[in-house]
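User: Please predict the structure of the protein below. I'd like the answer in structure-token form so I can feed it into my own downstream comparison script.

Assistant: Understood. Taking the following sequence of 175 residues as input:
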Amino acid sequence: MAISSIGTFDGNTVRFVRQVPGPLERVWEHLTSSALLPVWFGSEGMEFSIGAGEGRPVSLMGGHITGKVVEWLPPESLAYTWNMNQPGMPPAPESTVRFRLRQVVDGVELQLEQSPVPAPIAPFSLSGWHSFLDRLGSLLRGETLGDVMRAMQDNQAIYERLLAGGREDDGADVR
């Protein structure tokens, strides 16, 4: 199956499928390590923690995102609730973020879903996950990490256009 870096939104759920370098255990570590999470989220210097096990607390971006682990199946499936406490962002209901990992010939297939995502914040959610997953892939490949805020701003404009019925190639490249 061909994997596009573009995320999708069906009116309720944001989805991404990416292929990243493996093995599974290494990708799992990047999804759960309090030392590695801030790097691929582009939030170095902020506290990140995901408790190891169902029911354990989640605190990301210095407490701007909180929740609880609802699925912990190392190294294949991780899910946690997502409550945004970020000033300047529209209020959003609690959602669930789920990562599924599967070993494939050339690495690891990473699937991400977040649901429910209200339509007004879908472009922000899509651009954020797109940019974070780009950084995760770059980190796993040993590449230089780009400016996450710039990528998010550029990607948000593109996702707004896509969700309004435009095409991916209408103007700029998704970063």
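That's the full token string. The two ends are 22 Å apart (CA to CA).
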